[in-house]
Write a structure and sequence with these properties.
Strand order of the largest sheet: 1-2
CATH class of the largest domain: Mainly Alpha
CATH topology of the largest domain: MetI-like fold
Largest sheet: 2 strands, antiparallel
Shape: globular
CATH architecture of the largest domain: Orthogonal Bundle
Number of domains: 3
Distance between the termini: 53 Å
Structural class: mainly alpha
Strand content: under 5%
């Protein structure tokens, strides 16, 4: 016993001392500390906490009593067979989608890299086309072609639908549409790996007389196994997380994501939905961890950090043309699917009367303009935040060493791995009426950090912490309008203090404008009302609806949630107040800089986001964050850190180095993250289906609604609009990229995968 008692502290205390020393070093770097703090808060608030609320809700009934009823049903003779069959169907769908999607992705990758397929650029963009369309657009197209009133089944072949015959609904149709929807992911991964394979090993095998098939089987394929395994597992996870396609085309096959959706929308039973989510989250997390394991092992493969200067060309005509023909056939099928969507949007009544008409487009651009504009507005607003946050996290993961780095990397990717339905339920449970303890804990972390970096000694820190918090709590008890006026005016005063202390106009002006923006929350209705009134005087149509929506966007921009505004003002305060050397100015500025976010943080119900625009934006950011992080990590790993070290050795601080050195180098990855983030936002459904309301409408939800009401052609028109808008955004970003990086190559959009 004595040995145990003496040895245990010897192991524990050094770890504690090391962590304390590490924390002390981090606290001396305000940029690193602030980045870790903000990234950690956002991930906890919008990823970890919602997932926890979803999972835990399945174990408690509406009265808060421990209840395992829905888990016990898996072993019940009445409910059990159906539940177990749904789980089996879900796993079967994921397995088949992963197999066929990875195979199709490999065919396209091999054709474009090794087979010199004619029209390679066109084939490449056709392979990426499914990524820019709504998740169920291809399911809709498949139904239009091969459904009960399908163009081919009924119009061309004259087949009369019989149950069990010629039926596109079910596992076959679901796997087919899932394969076409997700194979682009495998294609980008495998294409990037093939381009980076060192050809020396294959050339050596060929010089020894090995046949091309033998080389492929013994050299090329083993080198690609981690990429193939990673693609397989990623497609498995993506398929399990999908909601749109199963709702459209699953037929009598019920998968867990659809069951979760129906439990909320149809039964309003959150305990049941949470219990189903817990069942779905287990295989999803396991596969996600396995996928990360294979991705992290890619470094052992014989690859270069950039595309190989020379590529081995497939010489065997059977393999080359066989691969190319398969790729062409799939391309033709993809073109047929998308052409059907466009054609369907102009058909009078699909399956009955194919006469061309514009009535569906008239309805889409009048009645549906609100959903189109809302989706575009929220997606455009969320995209830069997702991309910037992803770059910051990537910078922390690649360039910094600290305890918990692996946890930060893992949790930042968790939002994309967890099915969107689980996150959507979690957002409702977490932000409908969040507990005050969460806001108190977040404020405590922010306040302690603020006092640490602004105050120069213990007495200053205590003064800032106590007076700032006390004044902020008192101000938070005022009416909301008065709170905005008071804290906005104080932030303007803070700008004046900064100018008086440093005689620098730029920081002072930024702070003053932030204060004016805070006060403008009270003027939002006065600014927006004349615009809304003017729209009502116009003839009802696209333009009047668009102007009316513009008034709502002004309100949303000028009236952010107080707690989220507090986070933004806190960041500004930290950035501009750490350089103050005058003690009286530092104390006054520190108190003002802390009381403002404190007052806003505790105004009303903190983080009560349900029903507004910002919860939809948060869902968008969480879902697209992994793509931005992966793009940033891939870019930073190819940049020599000695460049940043040279900047620091010349006397530049971390903030200046990141802004002037690191950020320009990772700008291509940032733009790649922007492209993928915007695409994912515009086509998202599962994560936001529970968050839309009459005020904030989303196109993908409108497509689902129209489909359920029999508006097939209107749904096709909506889908076409989304595809066009996304393609326009990609085109504009590519033009920007060419101008910014003329002569330096373009963006490797595979970085975002």
């Amino acid at each position: 016993m004595a040995t145990v008692e003496t040895s245990t502290p010897s192991k524990v205390f050094p770890n504690i001392k090391r962590r304390v020393r590490e924390f002390s070093l981090i606290s001396r770097d305000p940029v690193l500390f602030l980045s870790l703090l903000i990234a950690g808060i956002i991930i906890f608030l919008f990823v970890i906490y919602p997932i926890f609320r979803t999972v835990s809700r399945g174990f408690f009934n509406n009265e808060g009593v421990w209840d395992l009823t829905y888990f016990a049903r898996y072993f019940d003779n009445y409910y059990g067979p159906g539940l177990r069959r749904a789980f089996a169907d879900t796993m079967t769908m994921g397995l088949l989608t992963a197999i066929f999607g990875t195979l199709v992705g490999f065919i396209f990758a091999y054709a474009t890299v090794r087979c010199n397929i004619p029209g390679k650029n066109l084939v490449h963009w056709l392979a990426l086309l499914p990524t820019v369309s709504p998740p169920f657009a291809l399911a809709l197209s498949l139904i239009l072609l091969f459904g009960r009133n399908g163009l081919i089944t009924k119009k061309v072949l004259g087949i009369t639908f019989v149950q069990g015959m010629n039926d596109i609904y079910g596992m076959d149709g679901l796997v087919l549409v899932q394969t076409i929807t997700f194979f682009s992911v495998a294609y980008l991964i495998l294409r990037a790996m093939l381009e980076r394979l060192n050809p020396a090993m294959e050339e050596a095998a060929a010089s020894l007389g090995a046949s091309r098939m033998h080389i492929f089987r013994t050299v090329t394929l083993p080198l690609l196994i981690p990429g193939i395994a990673g693609s397989f597992l990623l497609l498995f996870v993506e398929s399990l997380a999908d909601l749109g396609n199963p709702l459209f085309i699953a037929g009598n096959k019920t998968v867990l994501s659809a069951q979760i959706f129906l439990a909320v929308i149809g039964e309003y039973d959150y305990q049941k939905a949470s219990a189903l989510s817990f069942v779905l989250i287990i295989p999803t997390l396991v596969l996600f961890l396995v996928q990360r394991y294979y991705v992290n092992r890619r470094s052992y493969i014989s690859i270069t950090g950039k595309p190989a200067t020379s590529q081995i060309t497939e010489k065997d005509p059977i393999i080359r043309w066989g691969t190319n023909i398969l790729a062409y056939l799939i391309c033709i099928f993809i073109v047929l699917l998308y052409a059907t969507i466009v054609y369907g949007s102009f058909s009078f009544t699909w399956g009955v009367d194919f006469t061309p008409t514009l009535r569906h487009w008239n309805l889409t651009l009048t009645r549906g303009v609100e959903a189109i504009l809302d989706t575009t507005f929220l997606s455009a607003l969320a995209t830069p935040f997702a991309a910037l946050l992803g770059m910051v996290i990537a910078w922390l993961v690649v360039r910094k060493n600290f305890s918990g780095k692996e946890a930060l990397d893992f949790s930042s990717n968790l939002g994309g791995a967890i099915p969107g339905t689980i996150l959507g339920i979690g957002f409702i449970l977490a932000f409908n009426k969040p507990p005050l303890a969460i806001a108190v804990a977040i404020y405590a972390l922010l306040a302690l950090f603020f006092a640490q970096v602004v105050g120069k000694n213990t007495s200053e820190r205590l003064i800032i912490l106590i007076l700032g918090t006390a004044a902020g709590v008192l101000i938070s008890k005022l009416e909301l309008a008065m709170v905005y006026y008071v804290v906005g005016g104080l932030f303007i005063l803070l700008g004046a203090v900064l100018f008086a202390a440093n005689r620098k106009i730029a920081p002072a002006l930024v702070v003053m404008l932030a204060g004016l923006y805070t006060m403008s929350a009270n003027w939002a209705n006065q600014i927006a009302k004349p615009i809304g009134d003017y729209s009502r005087t116009m003839e009802r149509g696209f333009l009047s609806n668009a102007i009316f929506q513009f008034a709502d966007y002004i309100r949303a921009l000028l009236q952010p949630t107080p707690a989220l505004l507090a986070l933004g003002l806190f960041i500004l305060g930290v950035v501009f107040l750490t350089s103050l050397n005058n003690r009286p100015a530092r104390l006054v500025a520190g108190i003002i800089g802390l009381l403002v976010p404190c007052a806003l943080m505790f105004t009303g119900v903190p983080f009560a986001l349900v029903g507004g625009a910002y919860i939809i934006m948060a869902a968008y950011i969480v879902r697209s964050l992994p793509a931005s992080v992966r793009a940033g990590v891939a870019s930073l790993q190819q940049i020599d850190p000695s460049i940043e070290e040279a900047s620091n050795s010349l006397g530049a601080d971390a903030q200046y180095t990141f802004r002037k050195v690191t950020l320009p180098l990772i700008l291509p990855a940032l733009l790649a993250g922007l492209i993928f983030s915007f695409t994912r936002h515009m086509t998202s459904l599962s994560a936001i289906i529970f968050l839309v309301n009459a005020k904030w409408r989303i196109v993908t939800a409108s497509i689902l609604s129209e489909w359920e009401q029999g508006g097939v052609s209107i749904a096709a028109a909506y889908s076409t609009v989304i595809i066009v808008l996304v393609l326009i955004a990609i085109f504009v970003l590519n033009i920007i990229t060419r101008k910014l990086f003329r002569g330096r190559g373009g963006i490797d959009i595979s970085q975002g995968m």
